[in-house]
Specification:
The structure holds two protein chains of two kinds.
Chain A lengths: L4 H12 L23 H15 L14 H13 L1
Helix pairs in contact in A: 1-2, 1-3
Chain B lengths: L9 H8 L15 E4 L2 E4 L2 E5 L12 H14 L14 H14 L3 E5 L2 H12 L5 E5 L4 H9 L3 E5 L4 H14 L5 E6 L11 H10 L3 E5 L14 H4 L8 E5 L9 E5 L7 H4 L1 H4 L6 H15 L3 H18 L12 E6 L2 H13 L2 E2 L1 E3 L9 E6 L6 H17 L11 H11 L1
Helix pairs in contact in B: 2-11, 3-11, 4-5, 6-7, 12-14, 14-15
The chains are: A mainly alpha, B alpha/beta.
């Protein structure tokens, strides 16, 4: 599958929107825990939606390294290219 | 000054310190004296225990106590050793034989707690390059088993066969040879809902995955000989591993895993939470063995479920927002505001009823729960007393309104008479 990084970022932003209770402007540097105030359970729920959106498996083991929306985007791009 | 290791706990400490002052606190409450499986002295007051997971009331069973006392006298207070060193007594082996007979399996391994059974079995079975697929609402011991192991961990939506199928299909598409362990629970403890094991098992088998079912809250409670939900739903032959605990229906402490896999005994050589901890004390082994024999031959589960239906119906009729339906031994009220839930808990203790205050993240869907777990040892009089107090406190906190011009006790009596 060939999706550009920008396109992946855009799709992830759409998925984050329902969780973005404080209407934070989302950039690649947005941090899930502090900026969006998402707890670990919510991040896992969001992860499920990302898996379904891109039809990939993102193991929970990767979560500790995925603090920002940008890191999430890169991880999805990497998984898509594998 | 060096960085404070405890700084990361500041938010949770702050929240803890903000708990209502003066009243009892679920984190500090202690049982001054335990009188029976269903009563204790708390803050000097006789209190009905409505949240102990003591489903069969086994903790004071005369035969279990006698067996434990005999073992204590003859074999001492503890084994002081691991199962792989000096900690395996004949009685440990006998307990494993009893489990094999109880489940009609070829193998059984006893662990020192149920938590360690999940930790050990999950972390050991699913290694590098394997996958563990778990229900989103899994118990902490399952999440921790995943964290301790080296397998890739994938989570599916609670009790959803479609969602499990989607995830297993993807794993198989990308890695046809991967070893996969699907981990399920017979009964989910917070809301007492059963897993649809037939559907989940069918899907797992279609994708060539192993299945582990944790029957912690269902042993003794479901199935015609009390083996749990796998027996109740008639899928035992498709389940590869059953994990359970002695700390609920069995009335003591300890965990186990049973299986028919021909190489199952290998776990004794490689499973670290089995190898690197002391084995269960002889008295615990003795009472667990006796309790399992009793559970296999009892109808107590009918009394237990009829108790649960009575409490669930009474709470529902009183107007509470229920999280449970009475099909399991759990009765849970959903309270919207966390502080109201905390006050509710404190007022129930003051009225002489101990229930569980269950808060996120230990609860599904971020619910605040007043959770009761029934026992076969509860009498209908005790359940009606719980209902009276729930109604009283529920009215006081504005969660329900039973005929405002009447005193809550009177309104409750009327409601019960017309029910």
């Amino acid at each position: 599958m060939t999706l550009s990084v920008d396109k992946i970022f855009e799709q992830i932003c759409t998925l984050i929107e329902p969780f973005n209770k404080k209407n934070v402007t989302i950039t690649k540097d947005t941090v899930f825990s502090s900026d969006l105030e998402l707890d670990s359970l919510t991040v896992m729920d969001l992860l499920s939606e990302i898996e379904d959106e891109f039809d990939i498996t993102v193991p929970l083991n990767m979560l500790p390294d995925l603090e920002t929306v940008g890191q999430f985007t890169e991880a999805v791009q990497k998984l898509l290219s594998e | 000054m060096a960085f404070d290791l405890f700084e990361k706990f500041d938010p949770i400490l702050k929240e803890y310190r903000n708990l209502p002052e003066g009243g009892a606190n679920p984190f500090t409450v202690s049982m001054e004296k335990v009188l029976s499986p269903t009563t204790a002295i708390i803050n000097g007051q006789e209190t009905i225990l409505a949240g102990t997971n003591n489903y069969m009331g086994m903790t004071f069973n005369a035969e279990c106590i006698e067996a434990a006392q005999e073992a204590l006298t003859n074999l001492g207070t503890g084994t002081t050793g691991s199962r792989v060193l000096n900690g395996t007594y004949n009685s440990h082996k006998n307990l494993e034989e009893t489990l094999k007979k109880f489940y009609d399996t070829k193998h059984a391994i006893v662990f020192s707690t149920g938590y360690q059974a999940n930790l050990g079995v999950i972390a050991t079975l699913a290694g590098p390059k394997d996958y563990v697929v778990i229900d989103a609402d899994s118990h902490a011991s399952i999440y921790d088993g995943c964290a301790m192991g080296n397998a890739a961990v994938v989570r599916f939506k609670h009790n959803s066969p479609e969602n499990l199928d989607k995830r297993l299909s993807r794993i198989r598409r990308d890695d046809p040879q991967a070893g996969i362990l699907v981990v399920l629970e017979g009964v989910y403890s917070m809301l007492g809902d059963q897993a649809p094991l037939r559907e989940l098992t069918k899907i797992s088998k279609a994708h060539n995955a192993y299945i582990l079912v944790d029957e912690a809250h269902s042993i003794g409670v479901f199935g015609k000989t009390g083996r749990g939900v796998a027996q109740e739903q008639d899928v035992e032959k498709d389940i590869d591993f059953i994990v359970g605990t002695f700390s609920k229906s069995v009335g003591t402490i300890g965990g186990y895993c049973v299986s028919n896999h021909e190489k199952f005994e290998a776990l004794r050589l490689v499973c670290r939470p089995y190898m690197f901890t002391a084995s269960l004390p002889p008295s615990v082994v003795a009472s667990a063995t006796k309790a399992l024999e009793l559970i296999a031959n009892t109808n107590l589960r009918h009394k237990l479920l009829s108790n649960s239906r009575r409490l669930n119906k009474g709470l529902s009729d009183a107007g509470f927002n229920m999280g449970t339906t009475g099909e399991s031994p759990i009765a849970a009220i959903i309270v919207d505001e966390k502080n109201t839930a905390i006050s509710f808990w404190g007022e129930m203790i003051a009225e002489g009823v101990y229930v569980n205050l269950a808060l996120p993240p230990a609860t599904p869907n971020r619910l605040n729960l007043m959770r009761c777990s029934l026992s076969a040892a509860h009498t209908f009089e005790q359940i009606d007393f719980m209902l009276e107090k729930f109604t009283l406190v529920g009215n006081r906190l504005g969660l329900i309104q039973t005929v405002p011009e009447l005193a809550p006790e009177v309104a409750y009596k009327l409601a019960m008479e017309t029910a």
